[in-house]
Amino acid sequence: MSQVIKKIKDTAQDIYQGILKKKKPELKTPIRSLNNVTYNEKDGYFELKGDVKTRTLTASSVKTFAQTLKMMDLSKQLVETDDIATKREAYYVSKNWGEARFMSQPDSDTVMDDVEAMFMVNREQLGFIPEEKGGEIAGKLIVIDKNPETGKELRIDCTKFG
Amino acid sequence: MGEKTASLKDFEKKEAPKQAEEEASKDDKKAPIAVELAKKQREIGVAEFFARNRHLLGFDNPRKALLTTIKEAVDNSLDACEEARILPEITIETVDMGNDRFRITVEDNGPGIVKNQIPKIFAKLLYGSKFHSLKQNRGQQGIGISASVMYAQLTTGRPAKIISKISPKDPAHYYELHIDTQKNKPDIMKEETKEWSKDHGTKIELDIEGTYQKGGQSVDEYLKQTAIINPHATIIYVNPKAEQFIFPRATEELPREAKEIKPHPYGIELGVLVKMLQWTNSRTLQQFLTTEFSRVGSGTAKTICENAALLPKTKPQTMSREQGEQLLKGIKNTKIIAPPTDCLSPIGEEKLEKGLKKEVNAEFYAAVTRPPFVYRGNPFQIEVGIAYGGNQSADEPIRLLRFANRVPLIYQQGACAMNKAVVQTAWRSYGLTQSQGALPIGPMTVVVHMASVWVPFTSESKEAVAHYPEIIKEMKLALQEAGRKLSLYVHKKRRVKDELKKRSYIEKYIPHVAEALKDILGLKEIDQKKLEEELEKLLEQTRGKLDDMEFDEDKNAEYDEELAKIGEGEDEEENGQEGEDKDEEEEDEPSDQED
């Protein structure tokens, strides 16, 4: 079982058990604001500090709460079937969720970001992958990748795009 | 109005200039044009004047005439009963006699009228007890009922039939009266004593031309409002369609007796002052000031004389117009305490609210009685009542009920100070919508009552209160006070509504939470059901809080309902044919929006 699926299931399990024990369910996501980051000079990027935002199930948060769980479920399905979806596709999938559907894509994007941060994984690891749009990067960059089918090394020379 | 009546009397005094005519004919054979003109110039009787200008008295159209006639008779009956401290019981009957003619009978259990006075009271214009006294009365001028008699005479030619009895021992006197419009004198057609089973009281029967229509400006509505604002009166009314309405007395307690007061110096005008100086029995100016005015003691009187540069011992009768003016200036420069205000008899917050509850089935009621205030030396007091919500329409302008000295004002709303005060109040901050210069929109009824020893009406027909800044200011203060109470309720209601919306959210989204968990964890249907139940239980706490808030609303509605029902039934019956009253009211209704 992949790491992501385990994390999703664990979180869901916690909530489920909590409810059975008559505890108000909670979801914890790291706060992604400038106050909650430090610059890691050694590695050269920002790192999250430990502050966490707790979303307790209440009357006013029940909709987002349901949507977050739904989004986790969608991610689990994608990873399980080794499928992918774009942000836009995920938004359209939500249109099948009845009352819990998103009314606009920014809403769905935010929830997706929350799930990402909650599990400390990349969006790609959740099965949400940006659509390919061709060579849009040009400049002094060579990307070294692996062809997923043949396993052969790929060299993409971006200087040739410009 | 005082000035107006005075000027009318002056008008009468202008005699045809006979002398001028004679002199002119001596001098020249070819008379100047003025002589020719002089032949046409003659005295105009008050009655004649009002016969021509009957719109001034509220007889402009047949529908209004019917209302005005009944109104004048009912006002007099109520005034008489209250003055005699009798609980009023008034019976009004209207019979449709065809050809747009109606027979109106108004009978009361008042003190009755002394024989000699009957003809003058009913058949002489500007004759009455109320004009010269400053007292909170319905009637003010002594025009009303005699104008009705005159209107009857003009339209049907039938005399007014009056019967009155002052005590069980005395016989009842019966009169049939006309008005001599040229001389403004009663014309007695018939006079006799009759048997009348009543102990005391007065009954008047008039045949007039009119139109009967139901609706907001109908006799039915007028009498209903009268009953609401006069809870101590029993009113029995039979309309021309032979439907009987009984408005039973709601309290055995008569309103506080209104005391008569003397005029306050600040409210006096030069003409009246000069006249008072001439007619007084006082021998000195100082005595005159202390006896004829309220709030003037000998000290104040001396200060006035000093400020006016007049001797306190001056004989009032010998004072010239210039001295009168001096005196007036002296009064203005002297500090005098405000007139006494115990002469007013307001309805009271409790009774006003009770009356409103009877009439409107609303969720929220509030009433405000302002402390008395003074305009032009006349004390007055403003009361406001509001009824909000319930089964009132939310997207129409509010309903404004106007009362002056316990008399409903039905016509000319747009021209009335009460309307202006409501329009000028910022209702938006109290949770209603309102566009500039218009009545607010919302499910609300507003009652404004003005009690005063002299209500300044815009015309003799007493339909609208004049725009005195002091009066409008007091009205606005009262409305604002009521508005603040209202806004508490409106905002609370909004909060409850929001909470209810949130609660519906919970119910809406709980199944989705459970479903998502089921899908992720691969739970069974039964587990999902259990999960939903548990979640609902978990959120029960929040819901408990909501129930509390909702309960408030229920409590309010329950509290009002019983009282509200009484008025509701009447209302429906009386406003049932609203479509009908459109034709004639078109002149009046647009004026509601003006101003």
Question: How would you describe this structure to a colleague?
Answer:
The complex is a heterodimer of chains A (162) and B (595). Chain A is of the alpha+beta class and 162 residues long. Chain A has helices spanning 3-20, 62-80, 87-94, 105-119; strands spanning 26-30, 37-40, 45-48, 52-56, 142-146, 153-157. Chain A folds into two domains: 3-126, Winged helix-like DNA-binding domain superfamily/Winged helix DNA-binding domain (Arc Repressor Mutant, subunit A), CATH 1.10.10.10; 134-162, no CATH class. Chain B is 44% helix and 16% strand. Chain B has 19 helices and 14 strands. Chain B has helices spanning 2-13, 18-27, 33-40, 46-52, 62-83, 117-123, 144-156, 219-229, 270-279, 285-292, 298-308, 321-332, 349-359, 417-424, 469-521, 525-538, 540-574, 582-585, 590-593; strands at residues 89-96, 101-108, 160-165, 172-180, 185-194, 201-209, 234-238, 244-247, 364-369, 373-375, 378-388, 399-404, 407-409, 444-452. In chain B, strand 4 and strand 5 form a beta hairpin. In chain B, helix 5 packs antiparallel against helix 7, helix 9 (270-279) crosses helix 12 (321-332) and helix 13 (349-359) packs across helix 17. The chains are: A alpha+beta (162), B alpha+beta (595). Chains A and B meet through helix 1 and helix 2 of A and helix 15 and helix 16 of B.
Write the layout of secondary structure elements.
The complex is a heterodimer of chains A (about 160) and B (about 600).
Chain A: H1 3-20, E1 26-30, E2 37-40, E3 45-48, E4 52-56, H2 62-80, H3 87-94, H4 105-119, E5 142-146, E6 153-157
Antiparallel strand pairs in A: 1-4, 2-3, 5-6
Chain B: H1 2-13, H2 18-27, H3 33-40, H4 46-52, H5 62-83, E1 89-96, E2 101-108, H6 117-123, H7 144-156, E3 160-165, E4 172-180, E5 185-194, E6 201-209, H8 219-229, E7 234-238, E8 244-247, H9 270-279, H10 285-292, H11 298-308, H12 321-332, H13 349-359, E9 364-369, E10 373-375, E11 378-388, E12 399-404, E13 407-409, H14 417-424, E14 444-452, H15 469-521, H16 525-538, H17 540-574, H18 582-585, H19 590-593
Helix pairs in contact in B: 5-7, 9-12, 10-11, 11-12, 13-17, 14-15, 15-16, 15-17
